[in-house]
Structures are given as structure tokens and as C-alpha cells.
Amino acid sequence: MMLPGWRRWLFALKISGAALLALGIALWIDLPRPYWAMATVYITMQPLSGATRSKALYRVIGTLIGVTATVVMVPALVNAPEMLTLALALWTAGCLYLSLLDRTPRSYLFMLAGYTAALIGFPAVATPEAIFDIAVSRAEEITLGILCASLVASLVLPEPVGPVLAARVGAWLAEAGRWTGDVLSGVGEAPALRARRLRLAVEAAEIDALSAHLAYDTSAQSRAVPLVQLLRGRMLMLLPVLSSLADRIAALTALSGLTPELRGLLAEVEAWSAQGAPAAGVEALMARIEAADRPLPAHPSWTALVRASLIERLRELVAIGRDCRALQDGIRRGDGSLREPLAYAGEFGGRAPRHRDHGMALRSALGVFLGIVACVTVWIVTAWPDGATAAMMGAVLCCLFAAQDDPVPMILSFALWTGVAVVGVGGLLFGVMPLVHDFISLALVLAPVLILCGLLMSDPKTLPVGLALGINGNALLAIQDRYSAEFGAYVNASLALVGGIGLAAVVTRLVRSVGAEHGARRLVAASRADLARAARRRGRGDRIAFAHLMLDRLGLLVPRLAAAGPDSDLTRIDTLAALRVGMNLVALRRARHGLPPEAVAPLDDVLDAVAAHYDGPRGPASDTVLHRIDAALARIEAAPGGASGHDARRDALLGLVGLRRALFSEAPPPGAALLAREAA
Question: Which stretches are annotated as coiled coil (predicted)?
């Protein structure tokens, strides 16, 4: 068993110090429930200071919105408990729905606005005339905890986001460079190697999530936020480009079309990439690629088309690799500037779309709604004095883990460790706390426990344990300005705390739990629906926006595929091939606007057939799609020339080549396939 490293100890000392600071200030200014400020520190504080500040801002705003909603609802509906329950449940569920659709730090605003109303509203039912004072006090206590966490994270040996992000970007590009070397040297992809490549999509999503906190950082890299956004677009485009390159090299090898000239060019690009994609060699390398590119004749052979597609992907690889290196240098320097122009200066701008699952968000909202209603029903039927605590915890736990496919294991783990906290805090509360008479002795008693919670939170594997002990342990201690613990009240409050969590688990199991495989199937279905839409629409399309969306889903899909198990039929899905289909569909939609009318019709037939395929059940594409692709290739090969017409013709042909290889990688070349069909 390895001992915690110094970074983990630093975080534990900082979070415990922030909690004691919040407690001291709350006692000094005589807030009614100082322990709320301590618990808020454990909810808010993160190992990286920028992440703490970004969440803190939205948590404060969300708390104020939740407080305002409570002050409006409780006095107006206190005489109609059924309506008040429905109002608080609907408010919490609606805020959770918005939170799950917004996968940025801003989601904390909606989540806090939701369950803050439950935290304040249910305990205030017994004294509705004091709702304003209670709401103000809760807002002060929560805000105090958030501010103390942010202050300590920012001033005491801060751990900035910038250097961590720069290191993650460097590691990602290094792995992408190894993949580039494997592709260009013709190394085959074993299953383990393919899994590593798919991890790049997951890591790109993690880098994107980390970069969301960069604007709130104090490091030099905080000025490089626009560069990080530009770099992420290129990182995502690198995946389909490398996947396409591997496919074209394999296809040309099978066709005996990988000439010594092409092998030499691939070796040059590989050597340039291995050197870190230096700017000095880009111009000569691009000139070599241009020299190897040949105009397509009137009726090009399949080998010539695949060769032209390979050259196009090489051109994109070098341009993206050059941009990645330039952006990485700018991020590392931290001045937010670039020392050389970008090859794709305008294509990667704008906001990147993200996957939104309205169905699962609604299902989660329904879960928290029914969980609150169930807790309140038990509270009313049993006349339980601490039933408000159960309703409050049910709302909070349903919200905290709503983003998971199956939140029940985490909720049950939270309940288990809350039970452990009940026993431990009981011993502390009734065995040690009566001997404490000033704040210094109180701090000395609490510090070891608070540090232990921080150590547990510093490791992702034990984070839920640390959260359960840090949040609910402080709530169970219920420290006031004077000792007033009573054993019966403590047992009742503990039962309500654990009971509310348990009831949340039961309702979640009945309404919300779906499992990783179900989540994976929903992601696959959403991607297929987008591919059908991309084929059906006739506009030019935005390939970068499409790549962002598809790769965002891929980052969500890969860990779910791993959790689904090797026996699942989902493991046979070639996720990068589906992405290549989408990129080629966008290319075909663009190209059709420059083609003559007689060439547009067969291209539209292809798009319609692809749309029908992705609208239908999952499985291999039918021979109809293959026949229409081959017919469109034959028709567009004979399309008239002209400068713009030539460009559109080439783009359409290469798009069809890419589509055919992505959907029918094992099919014989078009000419051989036509002869086989005629013979049949």
C-alpha cells in the first residue's frame, strides 16, 4: 500500500484549513448553523485552484437563485403541503434537467439552484414566518464556505490548472505522434492498440473539461484559453484523419499501388512527425506532397482514386500537425500569442456543440421528483419530526449522482459511509466534544478527522468516501456556539439522514438506473440519427462542428463500451469508421453544390440510401448503398471540367471513395464488383 504523495497531503491540509476557517468565521459572526459552512467547503474545494474558483462562482449564483425561489414558494404554499411539495419537487427536477444538458462548470449553477430550495424549503416548513431569516442565514453560511474554499485554494500554495493542462496536452500529442508513426509505417492495429487509440477520444474530452476551468486560473496559461479551444478542434480532427490514412494505406497495399515514391513520401512525413512536427520542414514537405498529387483523369482507376485520397489525408495530417505544434508552443508560453500563422485559420473557430441526451435528463428529473415526493409522503404519514432531513437528503443525493448511468451503487456507498460517519461522529460528539471549551481545542480535535476526509477526497477511487464523511460528518456534528447535543435527537437525525439516502436509492433503482450498456446504445443511436440527418440535408454543412459532436459522443461512448463487457455486440462497433462516414457525408454535401445537374442526381441517390441505412436497425450497410456509390462514381468521373467544376468533381470522388471504404472496407474495387454483378 503506497502512502499518499505530497500533493494529496497538501490538498488535505488546505481543505481542512478552509473548513476550520469557515467554522471560525461562522462562530465569530454568530451564524445559526456554522456546520453548513464547513460542509460547503467539502462540496466546493477541488485539488486545482482554477477548478475551485470556476465552481465557486456558479455555486454562489445558484445558491442565491435557490434561496430566492424558496422565499417565493414557501410562504405562498405553506398551508397547502401537497402543493408546496409539488412546487419544490418540480423546481428541483427542472433545475436538474437543465444542469444535465449543460456539461460545463455552469451546470453547477442549475444544480445548486435546484437542491438549495430543498435544503432550505423543507426544514422551514415548521416555521414559515421565519423563512426570510432562514434563507438569508443559509445563503450566508453556504457563501461563506464557498469563499473560504476559494480563498485558501488561491492563496495557500495554489495548484494552477495551466501547467496540468499543458502536460495533458503534451502527453496526448505524444500518443497521437506514436499512432502517426504506426500508421505511416504500416503497423497493423491489435485490439489492445486499437483500445489505446480510442482512449485518445476520452482523453480529449477530459482535456476539454479541464480547459473549462482555465479562464479562472492564475497561471500564465489562463491567457491561452482561445488557443486551447483552437487546439481541441485540431486534436479531434486528427483522429479521423489518422484512421482514414491507415485505411488508405491498407487499401493501396492490397491493390499493389503503394509505389516506392509513395513509400518515400510516407517515410518523410513519419520522420517529420517523429521530430515533433517542426516548422522548419513544413514548406518542403508540403511541396513534396503537392508534387506527388496528380490530376484525376477523365476515368480514373480505383487505385488512382485511393491514391488521391491518401495524398489528401497526408496534406491534412501535415497541416493539422503543424497547427498543433504551433498552438502547443503558444499554450506552453502562456502569452496567448502565436509566432506563425495557422493552416486552418478560420475553420476551427466557434462554439463546439456537445451531446445532449434530453431523454435521460428527463428520466433523471423524474427520479428526483419522485424521490422527493416519496420522502415527503413518509414524513407526513409517520409524522416524523426529522422527516424534513430525509426529504432534503433524498433531493441532494438524487441530484449529485444523476449524471451516471446507474447512480444506485454510488448512492448506496454514500449511505454506507454515512452510517460509518454516524458511529464515528457519535463517539466524537458524546465522548470528546463535552471536554472542548474554546475554538483552539475544537480545531485540534477536528483537524485529524478533517484531514482524513481530505486525503480520501484527493484520490478518485476514494472520493465518494471522503465526500460522504466530509459532508454528512460535519452535518451530524452540528457544531453550534455552545455544546447542546442530545442523544435521542442525534439518533433521530442520523436515521433521517441515512433513511433519506436509502429512499433515494430505492426510487432511483425503480426509475433511473439503466446501466452502461443502455447508455452506450443511446449514444450509438444518437450518432446514427445524426449520420442520417447529415446524409439527408443538402446544405454544405460544417465538418468541424460535426466532428466535435461525434467525437464528444465518442469520448462518452468508449468507457461505456469497456464497462459493457466483451460479450456485448456493441464491442464490434468501429466507432472511428462511423466518424469517417460522417466526415465524408459533409464533404459530399459541400461538393454537390459545384457539380453539374446530371452529376447531382446520382450523388443524392447515395445520400438518400445512406440516410435510409442509418434510419434503420443497426447492422452492415446493404448492397443497395454499395451499388449507388459505384453508380455515382461512374457518373461523376465523366462530369465536365472547369476550374470550380474540377474541384467539386475531385471532392465528390474522394468523398465517395472515403464513404465506400468506411462502409464496405472488404468490398472488391468498383470495376471488379461491377463485373461480378454482371456475371451474376
Answer: none
Handedness of CA 316, 665, 660, 546 (dihedral sign): negative
| pLDDT tens per residue across span 305-325 | 999 999 999 998 998 888 888
CB count in 10 Å sphere of residue 173: 23
As a whole number of angstroms, the distance between CA 109 and CA 87 comes to: 19
pLDDT tens digits, residue range 8-62?
A: 899 999 999 999 999 999 999 988 889 889 989 998 888 888 888 877 888 889 9
Q: Helices (H) and strands (E) in the chain — how many of each?
A: 26, 0
Of all residues in the chain, what percent are helix, strand and coil, respectively (each to 5)? 80, 0, 20
Q: Is 405 helix (H, G, I), strand (E, B) or coil?
A: coil
Q: What residue has cell string 455486440? A: 569
For the whole model, what pTM was predicted? 0.84
Q: Which of 349, 289, 275, 338 is nearest to 318 (CA)?
A: 289
- Please, are residues 464 and 414 in contact by the beta-carbon 8 Å criterion? yes
* Rounded Cα gap, residues 48 and 46, in angstroms: 5
Q: Which three cell numbers stand for residue 284?
A: 518542403
User: Is the separation of the CB atoms in 146 and 100 below 8 Å?
Assistant: no
Asked whether 238 and 246 are in contact (CB, 8 A), the reply is no
Task: Select from 384, 366, 583, 667 the least CA-distant residue to 499.
Answer: 384
Maximal CA-CA distance, the chain: 98
Q: Which three cell numbers stand for residue 469?
A: 464523511
For residues 675 and 148, what is the distance between their CA atoms, to the nearest angstrom? 76
Alpha carbon distance 431, 21 (integer Å):
24
Distance of CA 505 to the CA centre of its chain: 24
All 3 cell numbers of residue 261?
Answer: 515514391
CATH architecture of 161-333: Up-down Bundle (1.20)
The answer to whether the CB of 24 falls within 8 A of the CB of 122 is no
Question: How many residues appear in the chain?
Answer: 680
Q: Band of the pLDDT at 380, cuts 50, 70, 90?
A: confident
DSSP at 470? I
Assess contact for 92 and 45: CB atoms under 8 A.
Answer: no
Cα 431 to Cα 428: distance, rounded to the nearest angstrom: 5
Give the three cell numbers for residue 156. 495557500
Vertex 390: Cα angle to 389 and 396 (nearest 5)? 90
Domain with CATH 1.20.58 in the chain: 161-333
**Residue pLDDT, tens place only, 115-129:** 888 888 888 777 777
C-alpha grid cell, residue 291: 508534387
Residue burial 630-657, b: 16+ Cβ < 10 Å; e: rest: bbbbebbbebeeeeeeeebbbbbbbbbb
Cβ neighbours for 605, distance < 8 A, ≥ 6 positions apart: 628, 631, 632
State how far the alpha carbon of 215 is from the alpha carbons of 51, 77, 151, 177, 212, in Å.
10, 42, 17, 28, 7
Euclidean distance between CA atoms 334 and 336, whole angstroms = 6
CA triplet 17, 20, 23: central angle to 5 degrees? Answer: 150
